[in-house]
Amino acid sequence: xxxxxxxxxxxxxxxxxxxxxxxxxxxxxxxxxxxxxxxxxxxxxxxxxxxxxxxxxxxxxxxxxxxxxxxxxxxxxxxxxxxxxxxxxxxxxxxxxxxxxxxxxxxxxxxxxxxxxxxxxxxxxxxxxxxxxxxxxxxxxxxxxxxxxxxxxxxxxxxxxxxxxxxxxxxxxxxxxxxxxxxxxxxxxxxxxxxxxxxxxxxxxxxxxxxxxxxxxxxxxxxxxxxxxxxxxxxxxxxxxxxxxxxxxxxxxxxxxxxxxxxxxxxxxxxxxxxxxxxxxxxxxxxxxxxxxxxxxxxxxxxxxxxxxxxxxxxxxxxxxxxxxxxxxxxxxxxxxxxxxxxxxxxxxxxxxxxxxxxxx
Length: 361
Ligand SMILES: [Zn+2]
Fold this sequence. Notes:
It is built from eleven helices and 14 strands. With about 350 residues, it is of the alpha/beta class. The protein has two domains: about 5-240, Rossmann fold (3-Layer(aba) Sandwich), CATH 3.40.50; about 270-360. The strands form two sheets. It has an eight-stranded mixed beta sheet with strand order 3-2-1-4-5-6-7-8, sandwiched between helices. Helix 3 (about 35-45) packs across helix 9 (about 200-220). The model has no long low-confidence stretch (mean pLDDT about 90). The chain binds zinc ion.
């Protein structure tokens, strides 16, 4: 009997729906609380290929809600740890782990061939980038967010997908993220999981709604899609479905076709990382893929300046000659794409300077 028997029993899916799932590729952007649950549900449901993208490492404070990780995963890249776990959940599907930053440079390569993009992110900048990509290419994008006790979810079928060649009509197209929120919130204004906290059951609820929407899209059941904005306050027991927003002709993205994040006009080369007392620095140029062993080579070079080890595709250590304001050695973590996290640092300018000095352009 098929391992998917219990969902194939559903007349809405059946064996034909299951085959559609098996032939699909879903990009899961971000593998925190939302991404873990989404990936777990879609792997179990038999989506043929999951592409998991996350730039960060597993921390102890993630274990409260990020259901794919164990204590032994702390310090590993999240995408790698998630893929390891999911391969033991379902060995019959393909799982790709990408330990990279999703940005205007990397996004086209990372989204090639995916049928749906689903949001497990913790920042608006990358969401707007994905929204630009979705609208400009006509790929469905399922937005979701959860912080504190509140969560939101919305499936986006871009208006640009509503031509005769795509599986949905203009009438079925939805508003995009920028129809809803024309501009991202200013830095430091919004609550984040690190300042406001977040509840595990809330994140799982939002993620389950996102995963359900993905399954309906992949199965071609677009009439059954929840077109409203799902809004949840898990503590006040308030679950609402807000009226489906219509595409706004004045929307800079889906109305006017301005893809500012995708073009790289907006976005940063350095980012203060959510709750990590660290700054992420991207390589200054779009370097060609590095030869194998370049991290070991860098590790040898850096050993003149501090203590470094290279394991699981991550180089990490401390710099002897660079100190924080409090006098602690500056921490440096470098990934295979030469993206770095500079820890115990007080400004992104200094993080950039340290990157240029020790890793180079
Ligand atoms: Zn729009």
